[in-house]
Amino acid sequence: MSKQYQFKLVLLGESAVGKSSLVLRFVKDQFDDYRESTIGAAFLTQTVTLDDQSTVKFEIWDTAGQERYKSLAPMYYRNANCAVVVYDITQTASLEKARTWIRELQRQADPSIVIALCGNKTDLEARRQVSQEEAKKYAEEEGLMWAETSAKSGEGVQEIFTAIAKKLPLTAPPSARPGAASRGPGARTGVDLSKQQGAQGQQEPCNC
């Protein structure tokens, strides 16, 4: 039987960089031009199948980018296995904000967290302000994964989440107890679901 793993993933970044659109494209392969800003955080799940047929289930916390919700962020990235920090390639300031989030993760998140820096909105290439060279150089210096995406066209979206799934250590951490599926934003994940009888299907996506 192919192995199944479960990891907690958090999305961070300034408001309006396209975090929710990125998740919607990944989870439902949809795009909404008039998507409202996230309030607090939204929770969704999606599964990626790797080359060896093992599967990685992401429990995704899509956090709000507005400044008034910033104090809530540690509740969502605490004990996260991976984080996608999103910036808008047409807004230089959004990359600076992404750098701030990355510094915070490096200081306060789990030391083993996998961080991906993601430049969104490549469909707006004509309005680009952040060069690939600048972002890639920064990612290399900080030891981050890096990619560019377009939530609107779907370009690069599946690829970045699959790359993260491949980067994660497919072993349950010592703190993960059998059956310890996430029931809240601070719960620890990274559980080998294939060792749990009937573990699949216990949680339904909350499209809040």
From TrEMBL:
Quote the cellular component terms of the Gene Ontology held in the record: endosome; plasma membrane
Keyword tags: Cell membrane, GTP-binding, Lipoprotein, Membrane, Nucleotide-binding, Prenylation, Protein transport, Transport
Q: Which domain of life is it from?
A: Eukaryota
The UniProt regions of compositional bias labelled Polar residues, in chain numbering, are 194-208
Q: Which CDD domains match?
A: Rab5_related
Where does this polypeptide localize?
Answer: Cell membrane
List the GO biological process terms: protein transport; vesicle organization; vesicle-mediated transport
The protein's GO terms of the molecular function aspect are: GTP binding; GTPase activity
Question: Does the record bear tRNA processing in its keywords?
Answer: no
What single Pfam family name could you report for this chain, choosing any that match? Ras
Q: What is this protein called?
A: GTP-binding protein RAB5
